[in-house]
Each structure stands twice: as C-alpha cells, then as structure tokens.
Amino acid sequence: MIEVKDLRRSFGPVTAVDGISFNVEKGQVLGLLGPNGAGKTTAMRMLACFIRPDKGTATVCGHDILKDPVRVRQSIGYLAESAPSYSEMTVGSFLGFICDVRKIKGAARKRALDRVVPTCSIESVYHQTIETLSKGYKRRVGLAQALIHDPAVLIWDEPTDGLDPNQKHEVRRLITAMSEEKCIIISTHILEEVEAICTRCIIVARGKILVDSTPQKLKDENKCSLDEVFRRITKHTGRS
Which residues in 53-92 belong to E strands, given as ranges? Predict the structure, then answer.
C-alpha cells in the first residue's frame, strides 16, 4: 500500500532524507526509529504530501505523491508530531470542520463521529474549547481527526506523545486492533512501544536506512534488548 523509491530531501546544506526506499503492506505496523534529526519526520511529511521530495517519489494506495497528492491525502490519516488545530474551536466543532474538509455529510458524518469520539475517549471534552484541553486530550483530538474518514493508511508521528501510561496503553491497543485492516507507519522514541505493537521496524540515521527487520529478529540476532540494539546501531550517527 506504500511504496517508497529513492526519496530524498535537503534543507540548505543538511540532507534530511538521503535516498530511502521501502514498501509497507496492509496488515503491517512499521515503526520508524532513529535519533533526533535522523529524518523520520521529514520522510513522513513527504509521504503525507506536506513537503515535496527533491528526488525520488512514493505511492500510497497506488497514488503518486507528486502526480496525485489529493488522492494520497484522501487515502491517509496523518497525525503530525505537533498536530495543528484551532484552539478557539470546541472539539465537536473542530471535528465537524474536519468532516467538512473530508466531505463527510449527512448520515455518514454522524456515523463517523459516533465511531471516533468513543474510540479516542473524548466524550467528556467534546464541548470544550481545544485551548482548555490538556496535552493528552489534544493528542486524542489529533488521533480522532486522523481516523474520522476511516483511511486505509495511517501515518502517525509520535502518536502517544503527551499521554499518560493508561492513555498510551489504550492507543497501543487501538493500533493493534486496526492493524489487520490498515497499513500503519508510526514514528516513536519509545522502544517498549515498538515491541508492543510493531510487526516491523526501520532504523534510520542521517537520512539513511540502517536496519529493516522485525523487533524480535533484531533482539535474537544481537542477543540483547531492543534498546541496546538501537544504541549500538545509532551511537555514532545522530545529529546534534
């Protein structure tokens, strides 16, 4: 469902993503790992058509990110690391706005809201303005907007950022429940999360893919924890 081919992107003298290629299929949960500055967020933003690559391309559900970005955006549920929202809106009005943008109307709109509001556990804050919410609840609203159109592909950057342990558990359970029917990419620094929900992981540093494997295989091959595997691979490759 996702095919990435020699994707590259630079910002001035800094090469953020340096010719990465990989595929992700339906039923896979891919953990995109790497130290700060490794290129994870830039890669996800290119897949979500927020920025254009300098070279290479990718397809999402058969739609090219350069030739057909509108269809790509229709196919994905994207959660940015700092998900934008309108702080003066209530949660309900913001999700209604997202339905308008996604052209979800009538009975389909009611079904979508009836599905995502309890799924993301935001019933209690539905009528509050977003500016009054805790970081955890704001993150849940971000999850809701990414799921409201029931997309085939999810691209989530640090989905559990700001959540308490119970909330993190619920989001992990949600991802696992959706994984059979969707293609999912998540970026996270929480290696426990990778072990809990990811069927595959790619470790990147300085814009390049260093490892593409499964969490269990990496632990078995290196005879150590995933945390230690990560440190060994990325120890001398992070940017300051």
Answer: 55-60, 63-64, 76-79
Q: How many CB atoms lie within 10 A of CB 226?
A: 20
**Token pair listed for 99:** 């339905």
1-15, 51-65, 84-98 — which is least confidently predicted? Answer: 84-98
Number of domains comprising the chain: 1
Structure tokens at 41: 């967020």
pLDDT tens readout for residues 30-75: 999 999 889 999 999 999 999 999 999 999 999 999 999 999 999 9
Please give the model's pTM, rounded to 2 decimal places. Answer: 0.91
Q: Which of 52, 232, 71 is nearest to 152 (CA)?
A: 71
Estimate the share of the chain in helix, then strand, then coil, as percent rounded to the nearest 5: 40, 25, 35
**Domain for residue 22, yes or no?**
yes
For residues 40 and 152, give the distance between their C-alpha atoms in angstroms, rounded to a whole number: 21
Question: What DSSP line would sit under 3-16, residue for residue?
Answer: EEEEEEEEETTEEE
Report the CATH number at residue 59.
Answer: 3.40.50.300
Q: Exposed (0-12), middle (13-18) or buried (19+): which is 105, by Cβ within 10 Å?
A: exposed
Beta-strand relationship, 208-213 and 200-205: antiparallel
